[in-house]
Write a structure and sequence with these properties.
The chain is of the alpha/beta class. It folds into two domains: about 5-40 and about 265-360, Aspartate Aminotransferase, domain 1, CATH 3.90.1150; about 40-265, Type I PLP-dependent aspartate aminotransferase-like (Major domain) (Aspartate Aminotransferase, domain 2). About 40% of the residues lie in helices and about 15% in strands. It contains twelve helices and twelve strands. It has a seven-stranded mixed sheet with strand order 2-8-7-6-5-3-4, with helices on both faces. Strands 9-10-12 form a three-stranded antiparallel sheet. Helix 5 links the parallel strand 3 (about 115-120) and strand 4. It is globular and about 60 Å long. The mean pLDDT is about 95. It binds pyridoxal-5'-phosphate (PLP). Pyridoxal-5'-phosphate binds near residues 95, 165, 216 and 224.
Length: about 375
């Protein structure tokens, strides 16, 4: 029996999401996957520890609708943001990855058109292929701004990542609002990194019904391992998302930890200011080199542009020899770029020292 013949047909053209390198052994500086540089603050770790003392925590199924967490997001986390009307509410997913998957489950029939910007977070395209959507990839302008053609698109879903991975810059709300008014389908704005800037399109939810804003606890709250993401949208959309998600999609510990993150958010935001300050420092230090420019970033990473491909690759390989991992994209129009996650001050110092020694050789 040829098992392969039983697989869904569209998996033949499906390329799964490529996760980045997780090197073995000690001593690596991993600036390649945009994790938060710092561990969760002590108060959150203590809350999680004390929750684990409850012997029923693991035995019992979690609340399928994560009601306590949803209340904490709506009444505390977003309280100051002048964001939501009573039309809007929140969906909780197993990381924003799952939130994106559930959006496809709700909206996309095979053959439906899905608009994806390029370059952007690669999971949108992976999911679109998995759900047999017709992909319409719109190339960003050379400066990574939104091209005018975006306002004429028709389709079921459109994905906008703001700030955009890999270049790091947010799109402005006037453009997003205009897109929402012009687009006949649902506009998904993925704000996984938005807490590293003052920018958010959350206030637009008051004006438009066809907008879903996705956010994550992975980056802001250093919770990538526990997998909590959420979507803010019109209640009609959230109701349907809850109907199609798997019953117990987020676990008890993660829900509890996320509530603790919200309780201690001001201290977390203080800690994140160190990342923002380091982003500025790295940008300034790297912009000094001839033939290198750092793009302005609203995220916990920066995008570095080199003059040519061969220098880019030499830096990439030499950094790896020095046990420093950064991200390179194997797409011709991105060959000259490297994406660097902002690390701790100590990691960034080591990175700068390594970079300087490599620059002495090649620049
Ligand atoms: C733009 C973007 N959206 C979503 C995600 C997924 O985040 P989560 O950990 O919440 O699934 C990532 C992860 O790197 C990302 O870069």
């Amino acid at each position: 029996m040829e098992i392969e013949k039983l697989f869904r047909e569209n998996l033949q053209k499906y390329n799964s999401y490529e996760t980045e390198e997780h090197p073995e052994g000690d001593g690596w500086i991993k600036l390649n996957v945009n994790e938060n540089a710092y561990p969760p603050i002590q108060e959150i770790l203590e809350d999680i520890n004390s929750a684990l003392k409850n012997k029923d925590l693991l035995r019992k199924y979690p609340d399928p609708l994560a009601l306590e967490l949803r209340k904490a997001i709506l009444n505390q986390l977003l309280r100051d943001k002048d964001t939501l009307t009573n039309r809007n509410t929140v969906f909780i997913g197993n990381g924003s990855d799952e939130v994106l998957d559930v959006i496809f489950k709700v909206f996309v029939n095979p053959g439906d058109e899905v608009i994806i910007l390029y370059p952007s977070f690669s999971l949108y395209k992976v999911l679109a292929t998995l759900y047999d959507a017709k992909i319409n990839e719109i190339k960003l302008n050379d400066d990574f701004s939104i091209p005018e053609s975006i306002y004429d698109q028709k389709g079921k879903l459109m994905f906008i990542n703001s700030p955009n991975d890999p270049n790091g810059k947010s799109f402005d709300n006037d453009a997003i609002l205009k897109i929402c008014y012009n687009f006949p389908g649902i506009v998904v704005v993925d704000e996984a990194y938005a807490d590293f800037s003052d920018f958010t399109c959350l206030p637009l939810l008051k004006d438009v019904k066809n907008l879903i804003v996705c956010r994550s606890f992975s980056k802001t709250f250093s919770m990538a391992s526990l997998r909590i993401g959420y979507a803010l949208a019109d209640a009609i959309i959230v109701k349907e998302m809850n109907r199609v998600k798997l019953p117990f999609n987020t676990n008890n510990i993660a829900q509890f930890a996320a509530i603790s993150c919200i309780k201690h958010r001001s201290k977390v935001y203080e800690q994140n200011k160190k990342i923002i300050a380091e982003r500025k420092r790295l940008t300034e230090k790297l912009n000094i080199y001839n033939g290198i420019s750092v793009l302005p970033s609203d995220s916990n990473f920066i995008f570095l542009k080199f003059d040519n491909k061969s220098t880019t690759l030499k830096f990439l390989w030499d950094l790896k020899d020095l046990k420093i991992l950064v991200r390179h994209f194997s797409k011709p129009d991105l060959y000259n770029y490297i994406r660097i996650t902002i690390g701790t001050k100590e990691e960034n110092d080591k990175f700068l020292e390594a970079f300087n020694s490599i620059a002495d050789k090649y620049l």
